[in-house]
């Protein structure tokens, strides 16, 4: 049969359903903890529709939920064979599923369920359905996210006090299997990202107490260590590791072993957090955060280049109307969502996706503009969280870093309007430019040679954050950038960044300014510092001055710091974007630049995925070799430009 | 313990949850049929909050869903005893429950869960929770609607062909119990509102096919007759009749036995349809329809005077933002919702409810105004349904009956603004007046002496509907009303009303004009006609000219007409409002009029509930006696006004 069927649903509901499940699954110290923001859910009922003009055939419709099929207003029950006579017909399937994901699967030689079907939520216009090529059999259920599984055994086992400590060698996420238990054994299972956490049974962040069975398969958890208190003598454990089967399409290698190790650890950290969407950290909250996801998307583009996870994340975060609060309640995270959308489009060029989600971007920007103060600056309302970073930024009134993001937001919304041929480009660009003028007027401090945090307080406090954004988003003039470099980025008196989140942005700014020496020093001391301490995954935050288990504490919890945090994987972006030097200059890498830099290294090589093609760069002190598998590329090398021909290596003696 | 606890939830979610369940429960001829409008659902997560200043005590919190308790940011698991130290504390409970109703129950001597708690949906302001005094025990679940049950046996049993027909004497709604079945007996159960439907097994609207058990309790259905095809020899059946325990606070009795019978049948019909909300009919769709509910609320006020069911209905119908379509997709039903809200307030004076739901009324009116055409008239968009009635109204362009409703809507919204001391009263009244002027200009046809259906078509077609609304809502001048009476209401050439729905409105208009003779003729021929045919409940539609099972057909289905339809109970309103003559003149019957009319009857007596008080009227050709149990009443009799003193009978010789 040529007619391929898929499970189909209301566009966006699959992503919203799975992100919702992620959000509602958090447990800590024995209690459930839903997110502190509004939860979006799928529509409770959906009407699917297909107009056909066929020579006749049949259909069998499977429904996830309750409902019926109608052909030209004659109704049928699900799973029954319906004969379709030759001619023009309207097929509809009405489905309700409160508490699930309304979806259908139609086996048919005339109207298989695929992207040609439309639907609505019994309101609004019909628009194309959502589907996923994975769900192509009637006996699948799109409520089950398609993970893969691998059975993993501990690499070490140690009797400590009245329990056994198992070490799986590195952090995992999965289902713990316990076999050989006595049925009357009251077993305590203590999970740890660190050895200390697993053994500190009063404070382990996640625990399970079980009894009554000979074998168990516990709910999915994240951990490296398991400490089991038990009286059974023959217990054996293993883990059904649950993961997304992502293939690394990008890579980077160099003569610096530590940097290679950082890339390796960062890649593993990142992979663990790539699931239904980009998670922040695999153990603690496992929530989807827009700012974290913004950086994850940048990383993803130089590693997995998985378009789907970016789209799932963007849809899952924006949810449905009405927009009543900032994404994750965070002002900067709303703004970063819009920038992420644009960068996503630039990478993959998926105009269908862009045009479908664009109305929500408009709504989100409209919501953000309700937060403009009398001076035209965006400012947090009492219920809004001005996050920016875990750092002592002076958050009084309208904060400079937020304005930097808004300048960029207006500019990317202008570009998006242009791409979609929607009015508003000039007005948006004008808003961006006018805001830039006002930001310079209110926030640029000539004496400090930098942008200040707040103009309201009168303190002219300078932190790195707004200044980093000013460079990242080309808001600072060349002169300002130079001043920022000297007065902020190289200034030891300006409080240092402590999160890999903003450290990632700082490296971006530094590399952009050509400060490779500083970049490499930071990589060595900051990421290298964690690895020196034995980290197999990158942490949520790192203070070099701390000692021992101090490193594991955060948010007033002894082990609340996430030791496997996606935003730690920033170096993957850094190496791809600045050392291999590959980036898109038009949507979907239709055109792109390759501008390699050796920095302080002797040799680099690697591949960058460019929307179903690749660029491979090899560079040492003698020779540069670049090959792109598609047209559109321009090599920029020592001020010269070279057109890259598809699959023809361009080799230059240095 | 003095501290009474209740299950509490996000205000409105209880109503939305139960109305959603009603809407998603429809089955016909073996398939599920969700409504053709958008389904509203409860919030998936809710944050409950209470600030306390106590001398210390304890709390135990039960959660319907997943979540935790926090006291001053220290978190606890559900069902655990939490000690509260003396002083000021903030208690929060965070709950998620996708697919259910997030709710909590707090046993406590310091912060029992009651109306003093607030909540939000992790967005928006905190506002008082919803609760229901019925749910006052921890082991209850507010997802189970508090019906009562009574076991009912059939009154007759008859062997017909290879099955047995059971007659329960009148329509019921409940769970059919079958005992004594052979386990291998493939039993067919055919439900009928009529004997014919139950026996016509290929066409019975609802059927169950069961096998494998000795006894069954089938899902709740509506029926009077059951026909069971079975090979078991010892089957016995009974029904667990499910109903809302409503007490009739109003009543009416007169010297006309048929009218008394009509009241009795109407009351039973109405009671069967008073459940989670006002249903349209108990058998077929069992959905909640705003226009039907508008009339049900009018009936309710003279029978059960149950404020709660009106509020459940109003909340369940309006749902949540965004408003994307008309209520039930029907233009007139949106408008009737707003009028119903005002009339509800006038009856019960519940300003708390009014102020909580008022923002949704504003949103609904704003939505309706997106449907104004260039002439300023409201008009259906392609996806809107202009219903008005099952009648041949000329629905071309803007339809007159809709304008009548909109005139009334502006006027009641003006009154509501005034009651709530919200700006806009004058502007709304102006809109109402201006629309009235334009309606007279465009729709009043001097030649026909009536309002025409449509000014677009040029046909000057006249039906009863717009003209009835013009009288009901005091839009017609005295002169116009007189003309309408002669040219429309008494005009045999104007198509007759066929539904009790609009027949109810017609009687209202006729009684208002003092046309009691016609009213009584209609009662006798129309309602009396159904009763003559053996109806124990009032039908959805009645054409006196039909014969036999023709009466049961509708919507192209042999038995699709509902034979127990709430809108058939209009005479209850008629007798209370016009014969007993009781109606409120300010909110909550603070002031009210009693203006009895004997019509063509010799004797009437009855009681009208007036917001926790009553008025009892007895009138015959010799004497009038009126007694109200509260102050505020004015008797109007033969052009004179008499002040009614509480509990003091006022007796007048006629």
Task: Draw up the topology in text.
The structure is a homodimer of 654-residue chains.
Chain A: E1 8-9, H1 13-23, E2 27-28, E3 31-32, E4 45-54, E5 57-64, E6 66-71, E7 74-76, E8 81-84, E9 87-96, E10 103-108, E11 118-120, E12 127-128, E13 130-131, E14 148-152, E15 156-160, E16 163-179, E17 187-192, H2 195-199, E18 206-210, E19 216-217, E20 221-229, E21 236-243, E22 251-254, H3 257-272, H4 290-300, H5 307-318, H6 331-348, H7 351-369, H8 400-419, H9 425-443, E23 444-445, E24 450-451, H10 464-472, H11 478-489, H12 500-512, H13 516-532, H14 570-579, E25 582-584, E26 592-594, E27 603-609, E28 614-620, E29 623-628, E30 633-637, E31 640-643, E32 650-653
Parallel strand pairs in A: 26-30
Antiparallel strand pairs in A: 1-10, 1-13, 2-3, 4-9, 4-11, 5-8, 5-10, 6-7, 6-9, 11-12, 14-21, 15-16, 16-19, 16-20, 16-21, 17-18, 17-20, 22-27, 23-24, 25-26, 27-28, 28-29, 29-32, 30-31
Helix pairs in contact in A: 1-5, 3-13, 4-5, 4-6, 4-14, 5-6, 6-7, 6-8, 7-8, 8-9, 8-10, 10-11, 10-12, 12-13, 12-14
Give a description of the structure.
The structure is a homodimer of 654-residue chains. Chain A is α+β, with helices and mostly antiparallel strands and 654 residues long. Chain A contains 14 helices and 32 strands. In chain A, the strands form seven sheets. In chain A, strands 14, 15, 16, 17, 18, 19, 20 and 21 form an eight-stranded antiparallel sheet that branches. Chain A is globular, with a radius of gyration of 27 Å. The model of chain A has no long low-confidence stretch (mean pLDDT 97). At the A-B interface, strand 3, strand 6 and strand 9 of A face strand 3, strand 6 and strand 9 of B.
């Amino acid at each position: 049969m040529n007619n391929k069927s898929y499970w189909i649903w209301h566009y966006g509901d699959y992503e919203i359903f799975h992100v919702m499940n992620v959000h509602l699954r958090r447990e800590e110290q024995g209690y459930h903890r839903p997110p502190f923001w509004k939860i979006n859910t799928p529509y409770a009922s959906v009407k699917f529709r297909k107009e056909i003009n066929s020579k006749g055939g049949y259909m069998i419709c499977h429904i996830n939920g309750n409902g019926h099929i109608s052909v030209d207003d004659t109704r049928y029950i699900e799973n029954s064979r319906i004969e379709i006579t030759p001619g023009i017909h309207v097929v509809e399937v009405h489905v309700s599923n409160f508490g699930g994901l309304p979806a259908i699967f139609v086996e048919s030689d005339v109207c298989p369920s695929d992207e040609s079907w439309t639907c609505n939520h019994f309101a609004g216009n019909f628009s194309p359905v959502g589907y996923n090529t994975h769900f192509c059999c009637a006996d699948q259920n799109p409520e089950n996210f398609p993970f893969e599984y691998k059975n993993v055994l501990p690499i070490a086992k140690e009797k400590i006090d009245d329990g056994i400590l198992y070490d799986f060698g590195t952090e995992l996420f999965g289902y713990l299997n316990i076999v050989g238990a006595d049925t009357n054994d009251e077993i305590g299972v203590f999970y740890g990202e660190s050895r200390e956490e697993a053994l500190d049974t009063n404070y382990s962040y996640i625990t399970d107490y079980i009894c009554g069975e000979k074998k168990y398969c516990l709910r999915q958890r994240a951990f490296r260590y398991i400490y089991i208190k038990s009286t059974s003598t023959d217990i054996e454990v293993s883990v059904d590791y649950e993961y997304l089967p992502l293939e690394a399409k990008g890579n980077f290698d160099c003569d610096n072993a530590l940097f290679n190790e950082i890339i390796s650890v960062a890649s593993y950290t990142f992979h663990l957090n790539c699931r239904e969407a980009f998670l922040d950290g695999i153990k603690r909250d496992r929530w989807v955060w827009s700012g974290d996801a913004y950086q994850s998307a940048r990383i993803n583009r130089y590693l997995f280049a998985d378009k789907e996870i970016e789209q799932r994340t963007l849809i899952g975060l924006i949810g449905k109307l009405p927009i009543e609060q900032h994404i994750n309640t965070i002002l900067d995270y709303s703004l970063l969502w819009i920038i992420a959308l644009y960068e996503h489009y630039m990478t993959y060029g998926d105009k269908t996706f862009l045009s479908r989600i664009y109305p929500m971007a408009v709504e989100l920007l409209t919501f953000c503009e309700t937060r403009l103060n009398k001076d035209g600056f965006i400012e947090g309302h009492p219920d809004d969280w001005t996050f920016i970073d875990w750092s002592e930024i002076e958050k009084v009134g309208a904060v400079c870093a937020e304005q930097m993001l808004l300048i960029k937001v207006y500019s990317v919304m202008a570009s998006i309007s242009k791409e979609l041929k929607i009015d508003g480009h000039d007005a948006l660009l004008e808003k961006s430019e006018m805001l830039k003028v006002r930001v310079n007027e209110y926030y640029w401090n000539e004496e400090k040679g930098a942008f200040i945090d707040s103009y309201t307080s009168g303190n002219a406090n300078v932190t790195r954050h707004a200044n980093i954004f000013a460079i990242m988003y080309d808001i600072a003039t060349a002169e300002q950038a130079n001043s920022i470099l000297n007065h902020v980025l190289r200034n030891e008196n300006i409080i240092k960044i402590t999160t890999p989140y903003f450290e990632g942005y700082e490296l971006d700014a530094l590399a952009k300014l050509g400060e490779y020496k500083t970049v490499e020093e930071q990589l060595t001391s900051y990421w290298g510092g964690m690895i020196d301490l034995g980290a197999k995954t990158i942490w949520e935050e790192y203070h070099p001055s701390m000692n021992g288990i101090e490193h594991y504490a955060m948010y007033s919890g002894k082990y609340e710091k996430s030791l496997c945090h996606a935003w730690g994987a920033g170096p993957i972006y850094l190496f791809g974007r600045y050392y291999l030097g590959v980036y898109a200059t038009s949507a979907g890498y239709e055109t792109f630049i390759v501008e390699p830099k050796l920095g302080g290294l002797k040799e680099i090589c690697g591949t960058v995925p460019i929307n179903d093609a690749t660029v491979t760069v090899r560079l040492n002190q003698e020779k540069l070799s670049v090959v792109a598998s598609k047209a559109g590329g321009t090599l920029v090398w020592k001020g010269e430009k070279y057109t890259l021909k598809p699959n023809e290596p361009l080799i230059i003696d240095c």
